[in-house]
Design a protein that fits this description.
Immunoglobulin-like; 8-stranded antiparallel sheet; 4 helices
């Protein structure tokens, strides 16, 4: 006889409920990580004429009233971007052979590849911390903290960029070379001295991998560093107040000096009547004109010029030539660019005629538009030869030159 032992269903269900309830009650006892945030504002003035210019510069938004108002706080901190890590409590011990008991920094300075987004547009950038500052603040009465620390020379590959001290504070900034983890410290002559790290700041590098391929706009993203003993931002043995992290939010603005983009297929423009060839095929009526519009996007904040190179010329413009020999037929080329006007007379660039001579244009500030168009037309008065040659093909190359180096 075979016996199968089964748990009593009601008892098993009750046990499971009690176990789930115990786990649920234990969850709030775990300590959440303390997260800090900082925001960097950067700007890149990309240029096709300076393809190696790929590093963003640090920018800070102006407060209401601008920088002229005293106390406006419009400039970046003397020591870089603030990383509000809260108060970190640290004990200095001159007798310790462990450098983490002294003035100590170990920073992950490798480049982090990040994707930033501006609407549907994506920018791939590299980010790294290049310098880190701390403010040591003593929590006892006595003489100058700077004199009490009496630290020695720098050990490691860092360089001290700035240093500032008062009776109760010692603030310093060390620059870090690129590396997996840049470790630097200074030994102190003070024993069993408790200090607070009351504020921290950092400086950074932000590099675009394809600067001239980016559309204008502000791109957003973030990168997170762990903070603590043995973490990516390590300030030595200290009470960090729990597991910490620093999330750096990035707002990176791209301003192309000059950029023109044509969609795929723009290398060919077939001229046709409005509504197609049906009227000609069915009734033999000569169309009013043959035309084709090609759209493109334009980004510019500086003056530029445009002119034409033609395979076949007619007067001051271009022409098409019949296959297998024959005459040439002139065509007109014009341009429309919203927000742009002619430098000669200020006329809006709306169906503005182009030719072999340069036409200069001036944007109204920083212009970024995808509504620009090139217009190719052949007028009825120039089609007399074409209507006498049904089935013939006329063609020619027209090169439109944009020149931003005026």
């Amino acid at each position: 006889m075979i016996m199968k032992l089964r748990p009593d269903p009601p008892r098993a269900a009750a046990y499971l409920r009690r176990l789930w309830l115990a786990i649920l009650l234990c969850l709030p006892l775990s300590q959440p990580a303390a997260a800090a945030e900082a925001t960097v504002y950067a700007e890149l003035n990309a240029s096709l004429f300076k393809p190696g210019q790929n590093q963003f510069g640090n920018k800070v938004p102006l407060p209401p009233g601008g920088c002229s108002r005293p106390g406006s706080g419009c400039s970046t901190s003397y020591y870089g971007v603030e990383a509000n890590l809260g108060t970190i409590k640290k004990q200095i011990n001159r007798s310790s052979s462990d450098p983490k008991h002294h003035i100590y920094q170990a920073i992950d300075t490798t480049y982090k590849e990040i994707k930033l987004y501006s609407g549907p547009n994506e920018a791939v950038v590299k980010f790294r911390i290049t310098a880190f500052s701390e403010n040591y603040q003593k929590n006892h009465y006595g003489g100058s903290l700077y004199e009490e620390l009496n630290f020695g020379n720098m050990i490691g590959s860092c360089q001290q960029v700035q240093g500032y001290n008062t009776t109760a504070n010692y603030q310093f900034e060390w620059s870090h070379p690129q590396g997996q983890k840049s470790v630097c410290y200074k030994r102190v002559a003070t024993n069993n001295h408790y200090i607070n790290i009351s504020s921290s700041h950092f400086k950074y590098e932000l590099i675009a991998l394809n600067p001239t391929g980016l559309d204008n706009g502000t791109y957003y993203g973030e990168v997170t560093y762990t903070v603590g003993d043995g973490q990516q931002v390590d300030l030595g043995h200290a009470d960090y107040g729990g597991n910490r992290s620093l999330t750096i939010k990035i707002a990176a603005t791209v301003k192309n000096e000059f950029q023109v983009r044509f969609p795929a297929g723009s290398e060919r423009a077939a001229l046709e009547p409005a509504g197609g060839w049906q009227s000609w095929l069915q009734q033999g009526s000569v169309p009013a004109k043959l035309s084709r519009d090609l759209g493109f996007s334009l980004s510019s904040s500086a003056r530029f010029s445009m002119h034409l190179f033609c395979q076949y010329y007619s007067g001051g413009g271009c022409a098409l030539r019949r296959d297998n020999g024959g005459g040439e037929v002139p065509i007109q080329v014009a341009v429309s660019m919203p927000g742009v006007h002619s430098s000669q007379g200020g006329a809006p660039a709306s169906r503005y005629p182009l030719g072999m001579s340069r036409r200069e244009f001036q944007p109204s500030g920083q212009v970024s538009t995808s509504a620009a168009q090139l217009h190719f037309e052949m007028q009825r008065s120039d089609m007399a030869a074409i209507v006498r040659q049904p089935g013939a093909r006329y063609r020619g190359d027209v090169t439109v030159v944009f020149d931003a180096s005026l």
